[in-house]
Amino acid sequence: MGSIGPADDTPQTGTEFPFPIVSFQPFLDGTPEGKKEVADRLYDAFHNFGWVYLKDFGISQSEIEEMFRRSKQFHDQPTEWKEKLRLNDPSVSQGYTADGAESSDPHGGRSHKECYEHRKVNELCPAEGELDDWTAWANTFYKKLLDLASHVASALATVLGLDADEFRAQLGQLDGQLRLLHYMPVARKTLESGRNFRINPHTDYGLFTLLFQDSVGGLEVDRFHDGKFVSATPIPGTCVINVADILQRLSNDGLRSTRHRVMAPKLSQKQLDAIGPDGYLPARYSTAFFVHPERNFLVDPIVKEGDKPHYEPCVAGCWRDAITAKNYRLPIPMDTPEQVQAAKCVDLRYMMAANIEKKPRVI
Ligand SMILES: O=C(O)CCC(=O)C(=O)O
Ligand SMILES: [Fe+2]
């Protein structure tokens, strides 16, 4: 059984890199011109590419490296230890999910991964002091990401032509979900056979996501929802922002929730030869920070004059609980009219996702 390290050789295919890299520094500097410049570049990126790489966002490369070290430290623990922290309540959305326990594929595809979601609920964290104060590290890093998310939300308000302060006030206290993903080494043959993925094609269901990836690669983006995935190559010192479903609903399709997946990395012939046809692909780590509005925020499309709303309103917290429950195969909460309405919107979302592959949709 062969195995390789991170891709450090010339990739065989997928070298095309169609995504803009935007410096966030002018926004953080806080001048109106700087903020406008970043918002214009984000607008252009989301409309033309659906996906943007951000650099100079106020979190250092060494903090990102420490994050990957902490993720590995967590996932290196025995399964029985991780299972004690199992995610089992959609409204809490915190905890460990083992390989195979989550799937958002409407066609029943299999994602090969494990993850830990952190939302600062201390009972579902490693105990105080455990793993070199792991939970204290997670809380500090979470706070940094939430601060960055707050700036990004203001920038996105400007992208949408809204008043940033008003928009931020309406969204309330942003609610992040820090997800540390580990894609275990997997047989090359498995990923090459049928509906097997590292993570199946999907859109994220919050407002937007900040995504960090290690150097292994394999992330791909379906920019125009037409099934043509392109590689989103890892670039040191960057994170990715992708628009997610709530922002698409809120902007009445002005911004598109980006469809993406994780497949086998694009490898050079030399690397493929080293692995061999029966070999294993290397492990991959990535970290997503899913940004949601406050639970009681009503996601009601902002409609331009002359347009009609494309979506029915639903309460953000109920939307999130319903999708989490569906993906994690937990009962969908249906006790209140808001929960029933959200469940209806979520059903529609899955129907549309299932149809994308039959009939490409371009927004
Ligand atoms: O691992 C990645 O690069 C993507 C992860 C992702 O899309 C997700 O967790 O929703
Ligand atoms: Fe995702």
TrEMBL record:
Residue stretches making up the Fe2OG dioxygenase domain: 173-293
Keyword Metal-binding carried by entry: yes
Keywords attached to this entry: Iron, Metal-binding, Oxidoreductase
GO molecular function, one term: metal ion binding
Region listing for Disordered, in residue ranges: 79-112
PROSITE patterns referenced in this protein's UniProt entry, alphabetically: FE2OG_OXY
Biological process annotations from GO: small molecule biosynthetic process
Family named by the database record: Belongs to the iron/ascorbate-dependent oxidoreductase family.
Protein name from the UniProt record: Fe2OG dioxygenase domain-containing protein
Originating organism: Capronia coronata CBS 617.96
